[in-house]
Design brief:
Strands 3-6-11-8-9 form a 5-stranded antiparallel sheet, with no helix packed on it. Helices cover about 15% and strands about 35% of the residues. The chain has a domain of about 130 residues: Galactose-binding domain-like (Jelly Rolls), CATH 2.60.120.260. It contains 3 helices and 12 strands. The two termini are about 45 Å apart. It has about 200 residues and is mainly β.
């Protein structure tokens, strides 16, 4: 709708545009049909998500993608389109607990050669339970898929995942020309939980 001018001509244009887009205004005393909502029978496959009407499958995906980086992290870094964060050694993050069988996708980058012949060992845990422990050997970005059984993350709405490493490094001490004096653990591009189809 474009409103130009003032007075009766502009008001007529505004009313005509409203009627063509929304239909005629309701007549006083008549009952109009309310808009359908997520609770209606026709809309049982939909749910509200932050004020938006989305499919239930999309809501589960959107909710499970929410990750809060808690303790032990350096500031986020941009690499083209990607963002990563380094742990300071041990770090925690909070995820939405799916309370059902799911897969945790751990997207990380290992720096080959920093630790010599023995690769750094990374451990993912929730509470006292080890979810995965693996050598982060090889260079480049990788995604580790960790199966989560029902109840593995406990019975709360959220779960805390701890990322631990057996060794850290300071880039200035091991990479020629580096001035980076931060203590670094593992570079994490993201953590995502996915439900089975």
């Amino acid at each position: 709708m474009i409103g130009v001018g003032t007075g009766a001509a502009a008001a007529s244009l505004l009313l005509a545009t409203r009627e063509s887009a929304l239909g005629p205004p309701p007549v006083p005393g008549e009952v109009s049909t309310p808009a359908r909502t997520a609770g209606d029978a026709c809309c049982s496959d939909y749910a509200d998500y932050d004020g938006w009407l989305v499919t239930l499958a999309d809501k589960r995906r959107l909710v499970l993608d929410r990750v809060r980086y808690d303790d032990g992290w350096h500031a986020a870094e941009r690499h083209g389109e990607a963002t990563s964060r380094w742990t300071r050694g041990s770090a925690t993050l909070t995820v939405v607990n799916p309370r059902t069988a799911a897969t945790l996708h751990f997207d990380y980058n290992a720096l080959a050669g920093v630790f010599g012949d023995a690769p750094q060992v990374v451990t993912l845990s929730a509470g006292d339970r080890v979810l995965s422990s693996f050598p982060a050997g090889g260079a480049g970005r990788r995604v580790l898929d960790v199966p989560l059984g029902t109840g593995v993350l406990g019975d709360g709405d959220r779960a805390v995942i701890r990322i631990g490493v057996d060794r850290t490094f300071v880039p200035a001490n091991v990479i020629e020309g580096s001035r980076d004096t931060r203590e670094l653990g593992i570079q994490v591009y993201g953590v995502r939980i996915e439900l089975p189809d």
